[in-house]
């Protein structure tokens, strides 16, 4: 039996549908005036031998889902291909892939003819548990991640856990990082449950559906009251300001959700050392987050380079860093942090000792 979560948005209400056979969905979409934009890896893994693929003919476009391709040039190329392929303003685009495919298609769909309907079939845990709702598109510009973007929700989202089977352990950890940031925002019991079930989840990915539903339910409540990120939704930047700079510094070798995991731990460390968060909370949350860190070490970089990247963060409104600090589970706050000598040395201390501490 399929079930769904309905999201209210000022642009259009839309649904996330769970437990529907994805090939049944595609067979229906195939008959419409639809254009498919598919992550090339997903195409090879799941769709190459699907009988419907021939019917797509000139309506199928593949995307190489790499961070360096999440830019305006890719959107421009996609527009060219779609227009050459005969897309009209009442056609639809079906995007199948993770957050990169989503960001490129969402951005393109939002500007082509001032808006073409689009449907999203997320294939990574991160995209299923987080990015698929909320309507944001984010495109990198030069060295700055997610500098350009729009708000343009899809018309429908279909979630099928079958795609999670081909993800690596680090891909799953990336999604878990984003799920934790919702659970720690709302003090969900699932934060601890997820920690206890980690090994089981790696073996049976269908167990993740309960956790995906919880993340989306938490996110839904906030985006429905603050769709355009002016108030409460800003707290979802927890771990992201510090995480984006880690992604950029490592040239995206560390994936998004694991960079966010380190980012949340650093935000908690600063909160604890600046006197906001009790040490007991810091240590408790640290145990959950530490299990989700990347295997590869991350410490051979200059703190000046790291702080320069923080300074460039698009959420800063003045010389200070706008970031999310925490007073404990469920108690996040938007704060301005001066990147003065004292705070720089705390960040340096975190990476030289705390980050690698058992
Ligand atoms: N728009 C938003 O609201 C939002 C929110 C969070 C993150 N993001 C963005 O999402 C991006 C990260 O996305 P992501 O982590 O979902 O993945 P991704 O799109 O970056 O893909 C990562 C890799 O996984 C592969 N892949 C995708 N699905 C797979 C599957 N089922 N099996 C095997 N391999 C698969 C891709 O081909 C790629 O090699 C970042 O650019 C981030 O900034 C956007």
TrEMBL record:
Key words, A-Z: Cobalt, Lyase, Metal-binding, NAD
Keyword Lyase: yes
Domain 3-dehydroquinate synthase C-terminal: 175-316
Cofactor(s), names only, from the UniProt record: NAD(+); Co(2+)
InterPro entries, sorted: Dehydroquinate_synthase, DHQ_synth_fam, DHQS/DOIS_N, DHQS_C, Put_AroB
Entry-linked Pfam families: DHQ_synthase, DHQS_C
Top-rank taxon: Bacteria
Ranges for domain 3-dehydroquinate synthase N-terminal: 62-173
NCBIfam families in alphabetical order: P_lya_rel_AroB (TIGR04425)
Name used for this protein in its record: 3-dehydroquinate synthase
Organism: Leptospira ainlahdjerensis
């Amino acid at each position: 039996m399929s079930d769904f979560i309905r999201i209210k948005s000022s642009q259009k209400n839309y649904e996330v549908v769970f437990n529907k056979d994805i090939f049944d969905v595609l067979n229906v979409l195939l008959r419409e005036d639809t254009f498919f934009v598919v992550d090339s890896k997903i195409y090879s893994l799941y769709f190459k031998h699907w009988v419907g693929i021939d019917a797509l003919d000139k309506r199928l476009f593949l995307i190489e889902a790499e961070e360096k391709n999440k830019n305006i040039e890719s959107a421009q190329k996609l527009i060219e291909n779609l227009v050459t392929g005969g897309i009209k303003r009442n056609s639809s685009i079906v995007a199948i892939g993770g957050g990169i495919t989503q960001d490129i298609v969402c951005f393109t769909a939002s500007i082509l003819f001032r808006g073409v309907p689009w449907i999203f079939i997320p294939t990574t845990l991160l995209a299923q548990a987080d990015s698929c709702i909320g309507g944001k598109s984010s495109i990198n510009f030069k060295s700055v991640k997610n500098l350009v973007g729009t708000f343009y929700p899809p018309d429908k989202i279909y979630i099928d856990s079958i795609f999670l089977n081909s993800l690596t352990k680090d891909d799953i950890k990336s999604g878990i990082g984003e799920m934790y940031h919702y659970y720690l925002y709302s003090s969900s019991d699932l934060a601890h449950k997820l920690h206890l079930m980690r090994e089981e989840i790696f073996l049976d990915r269908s167990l993740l559906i309960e956790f995906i539903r919880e993340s989306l339910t938490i996110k839904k409540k906030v985006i429905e009251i603050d769709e355009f990120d002016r108030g409460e939704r800003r707290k979802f930047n927890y771990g992201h300001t510090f995480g984006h700079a880690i992604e950029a510094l490592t040239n995206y070798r560390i994936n998004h959700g694991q960079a966010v995991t380190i980012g949340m731990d650093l935000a908690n460390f600063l909160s604890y050392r600046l006197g906001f968060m009790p040490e007991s909370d810091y240590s408790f949350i640290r145990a959950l987050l530490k299990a989700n860190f990347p295997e590869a070490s991350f410490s051979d970089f200059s703190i000046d380079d790291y702080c320069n990247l923080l300074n460039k963060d698009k959420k800063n409104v003045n010389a200070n860093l706008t970031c999310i600090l925490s007073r404990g589970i469920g108690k996040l706050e938007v704060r301005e942090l001066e990147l003065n000598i004292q705070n720089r040395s705390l960040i340096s201390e975190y990476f030289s000792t705390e980050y690698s501490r058992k």
